Amino acid sequence: MTLATTKAVPTHNHELTDVGTLSVFFAVAYFSHGIATQFGLIAQPIQYFMMKGLNLTAAQISSYLAVMMLPWVLKPLVGMVCDFVPLFGYRRKSYVIVANLLTALAYFVMVWTNAL
Fold first, then answer.
1. pTM of the model
2. Sign of the CA dihedral running 7, 10, 15, 20
3. Structural domain harbouring 77
4. Are residues 39 and 79 in the same domain?
5. Same domain, yes or no: 94 and 75
6. Which of 35, 60, 85, 116 allows an S-S link to 56, with CB 3.0 to 4.6 Å?
């Protein structure tokens, strides 16, 4: 007596296309991140602009670049706080709204301040 093994043959390829779509999405996201970060392709023009256009010293440039890197350094901590501490009854939505409001406030301060 032999046991017949049956394999489930997928009738549609949704799983395969979903994996392909996600792979393309993550490839584009990582490529964009590599271009946009301070250590990516945009690093040289930013440092040149700071040095020649803004007349900053090397110490000032490295200080500004360190401040620019702070959000990426704090991202895991902020992510854990977002996940475990609800704000106004929501875990992520309220944090996104508060962050966008703070960003808009910072833009308005930059527009209306001549010292920057």
1. 0.52
2. positive
3. 26-84
4. yes
5. no
6. 60
